[in-house]
Design goal:
Elements (H helix, E strand, L loop, with lengths): L2 H32 L7 E2 L14 H5 L3 H14 L3 E2 L5 H11 L4 E4 L2 E4 H6 L3 E2 L2 E2 L1 E4 L2 E4 L14 H8 L7 E4 L2 E4 H10 L8 H10 L5 E3 L5 E3 H9 L13 H16 L6 H19 L21 H18 L2 H4 L2 H16 L4 E2 L1 H20 L5 H7 L38 H6 L34 H4 L23 E3 L5 E3 L13 H4 L17
Parallel strand pairs: 2-3
Antiparallel strand pairs: 1-13, 3-4, 5-6, 7-8, 9-10, 11-12, 14-15
Helix pairs in contact: 3-14, 3-15, 4-6, 4-15, 6-8, 8-9, 8-10, 9-10, 9-11, 10-11, 10-12, 11-12, 12-14, 12-15
Length: 538
């Protein structure tokens, strides 16, 4: 065999070996992070002396729904549980930021400080900076050890995106500052189908319209729709789908909500995304435990784990997915309200128990989203008004004696699927209930054929969807700002003016015009100040 032939063989084999090693490394990392035995549990007691009680927000005070007040109290309790900048890792603190947003408080050098403000200063952990500059812009510190920095690609970016920070928000690094816009651009330029896309979709869908397209550093065509297509095709559950697959479904629901606000019909991959979301909403309902709590086995079977930490982990992640997925009407359904109430009771009754940051703050994020949605609603719904008149002895969700329709209360509880508690529900039954009456069915009469991700929309027979069908009315503007011109959590497209300041575009690009620059469509969003009010006991 000639040396020239050997070199050609090596050039062909080495890239394949590199891909295999990359995939194996990513899989090993995912298994580490999805394991229950690595993240340390801790006792995180309330700091009532350091953090005085504060008055509930106007929306909470004026609400006629006692469930809203219970959620507020529960969230406030978590706000008073302080993480320490010297004892807790960036991974743990960023989870707290996800749950509490701009309300996060930290203990730094013996004093209470705002969590987001401290993060923006570019702190160090184990002598390494939280953020770094890159050729494409900037990013959060990538994975190095479990539960130190990012556990997944763009995980920290997605958590910051949930705070809906302005694009110009600056983060300090060892070599100067980077902005939120820099990190979003880095996510676009370095996205690849060889790795995870869940948190990339989560972050980009927060700022970009559903028709956004770009070319990455490898010269590949990418779009929000392509990210959705990859997430739709990913199986739910297993070692490559952490936390039962709820994160992927959450990101998918967020992207779908943005698409629905455009008023376009659900076709192609967007129809498939909607179908997948609806199916797992129904699976969550069907597998609810007889007491109304969400399953400890996620989407596999009914189960109630004896350990609080594990119970609240699954309940919190499932409820987080539901809060992003269900319509405003379904948000008031008895089974959803009961799940919200029971999670609140779990967190309040066990607030002195050992708990991990992931279960605690994903649960808190579910409550935060609920409060945002209820605050944004223009009118209090009829079920909430009725809840105020609930007779003594009833739970605030008025569902103490209720359970999901399929469940028969009693020692031998079974449902229409024939599955007993602890058993998996047959796939055929899930297929039959994918369009069950619990969720308004806004789909087309029949599913259109799937098309390539970058093929233009062809229309469809589904009428435009009003904002309230999705259940996310416009977020409230910042103090002093006028109401956004566009509905939903998007503003008109932002472009850089000559002076460098973002300004609303006069019009959308012509149909079919390429959108290859982040500046063409990246948008600022207002920050809803959940529960921000003068400090006073309620």
């Amino acid at each position: 065999m000639s040396p020239m032939y050997d070199k050609r063989m090596l050039r062909q084999i080495l890239p394949l070996l590199a891909l295999l090693l990359l995939a194996e490394s990513a899989s090993a990392q995912m298994k580490l992070l999805s394991s229950d035995e690595h993240e340390p549990a801790m006792k995180l007691l309330e700091s009532t002396r350091r953090i005085p009680l504060r008055l509930a927000s106007k929306d909470v005070q004026e609400s006629a729904d006692p469930l809203v007040k219970l959620v507020w109290e529960t969230r406030e309790t978590q706000r008073r549980r302080l993480l320490s900048t010297s004892e807790h890792t960036p991974w743990q603190i960023m989870h707290a930021l996800l749950g509490l947003r701009q309300d996060l408080l930290l203990l730094h050098e013996g004093k209470v400080t705002n969590g987001l403000d401290w993060i923006l200063t570019g702190p160090l952990y184990q002598s390494e900076c939280w953020f770094e500059k890159t050729e494409s812009g900037g990013r959060a510190h990538p994975f190095s050890k479990p539960y130190w920095f990012e556990g997944h690609v763009n995980q920290f970016l997605s958590m910051l995106a949930s705070c809906r920070l302005p694009l110009a928000t600056e983060f300090r690094t060892e070599n100067g500052t980077i902005t939120m816009k820099d990190m979003l651009r880095h996510a676009q330029m370095n996205v690849t189908s060889r790795g995870e896309v869940t948190w990339t979709l989560w972050a980009l869908a927060t700022y970009l319209p559903s028709d956004a397209r770009w070319v990455n550093n490898e010269g590949e065509d990418w779009s929000i729709e392509k990210l959705v297509e990859l997430e739709v095709g990913k199986p739910v559950g297993g070692p490559t789908s952490p936390c039962g697959g709820t994160h992927g479904l959450f990101a998918l629901a967020q992207a779908r909500n943005v698409y629905l606000r455009s008023g376009r019909p659900l076709t192609g991959v967007w129809f498939e995304a909607d179908q997948k979301i609806r199916r797992y909403v129904q699976t969550t309902r069907i597998l609810s435990n007889p007491d109304g709590s969400l399953s400890s086995s996620y989407f596999k079977a009914r189960e109630v784990k004896p350990e609080f930490d594990k119970r609240v982990g699954s309940q919190g992640h499932l409820l987080e997915f539901l809060m992003m997925s269900v319509s405003q009407e379904e948000l008031q359904a008895p089974w959803v309200r009961k799940a919200i109430e029971l999670l609140c009771r779990e967190l309040m009754d066990n607030r002195t128990e050992y708990v991990r940051c992931s279960p605690l703050y994903h649960s808190t994020n579910a409550l935060t989203i609920y409060l945002e949605r209820m605050a944004a609603a223009s009118k209090m719904s009829a079920p909430a008004k009725e809840a105020e008149q609930a007779p003594p002895g009833k739970s605030v969700s008025r569902t103490r004696l209720l359970a999901p329709p399929e469940i028969v209360m009693g020692a031998e509880a079974v449902d229409a699927s024939g599955a007993e508690p602890g058993e998996s529900v047959p796939e055929a039954f899930l297929e039959e209930t994918a369009a069950a009456p619990g969720i308004p069915d806004n789909r087309a009469a029949s599913a259109p054929a799937r098309r390539p991700a970058n093929q233009p929309q062809r229309g469809g027979d589904r009428p435009p969807v009003p904002d309230d069908d999705i259940g996310f009315p416009p977020f409230p503007p910042l103090d002093g700002d006028s109401e956004p011109a566009a509905t939903g959590n998007r503003l008109p497209p932002v472009r850089e003016s000559a002076g460098g300041q973002g300004a609303a575009a006069a019009s959308e690009p012509a149909s079919g015009a390429p959108r290859s620059s982040l500046d063409d469509f990246l948008q600022d969003t207002p920050v809803p100040e959940v529960g921000k009010a003068p400090v006073k006991s309620i």
